[in-house]
Every structure is written in structure tokens, then in C-alpha cells.
Amino acid sequence: MEPKKDAIIATIGIFSGRPNPELMLSGKVAEKLANLVKTTLGKESIHPPPPPRLGYYYGFLVQTSKELAKRLELPVEFNVYHGVITERYGQEQKHWRDVANVERFLIDQAYEQGHGDLLEKVGADKSE
Q1: Distance linking the first and last C-alpha atoms of the chain
Q2: 3-class DSSP state for residue 61?
Q3: How does pLDDT run across 32-70, given as a tens digit for each residue?
Q4: Which of 5, 56, 103, 122 is such that its CA lies 20 to 30 A from the CA of 71?
Q5: Cα–Cα distance between 91 and 30 in angstroms, integer?
Q6: How far is it, in rounded angstroms, from Cα 127 to Cα 92?
Q7: CA 52 – CA 14 distance, rounded (Å)
Q8: Angstrom distance (rounded) from CA 38 to CA 74
């Protein structure tokens, strides 16, 4: 799905043989995500996350339209996996420790949008 002008698209990475499910985040939820991401970027550099494994959850690909990214002060695209946010600049990548629990926020949003059964099967449990 292409990012919409007024929503953030977060694709859930799951090796399932089916298309990866997508979340649409808009309004207050998009603003909350943006605040969490801004709290994380540039704070604590860290090593890259581990490589994805077949049959398991491997994080989120988050995509935002250029207009919305500019307004929310977000990268147009980034990944979140295993406590690491990865920004891309062409071929270069920067990795930041997820100090604001962006991944947990996205997992909880995925559960709220009806993807809980699938996430439980691949080991991404909802927070208590």
C-alpha cells in the first residue's frame, strides 16, 4: 500500500507465505507515533538488529508520504525491529536504540487493528 497523504502505513514483517498485513495510522495515533520516533532518533546509536528468520516476526516497515513526514518531522521510511529503529539514507543506514518503545506501540496498534492472532503465532505478544 502506498503511504497516504494523511496516514502512516506500517507493514508488519511476518514470513507467512501471504502478503504482510498493514496498519494505517492517522490522527492522534500518527502524532503519538511521531512523538515516540522523534524521542528515539539520534539519541543512542546501536548495532543493527539481527537478521530476520523464516517463519518469524521481523518488525515493521513504516512509510509516510513526504508531506506528512515533513509535517510530523519523521523520516519518510524506517524500520523497527528487535528494539532498533533503522533509518536509511540511500545505501547508508543509521541504527538507534528504541528508547521510546516505538516497536511496542506498533505491536499494540496491530493488536487493536485485528492482527493479534497472527502476531501471537509468530511470537509478538501484546503488552500487558
Answers
A1: 30
A2: strand
A3: 999 999 999 999 999 999 888 777 788 999 999 999 999
A4: 103
A5: 27
A6: 32
A7: 9
A8: 7
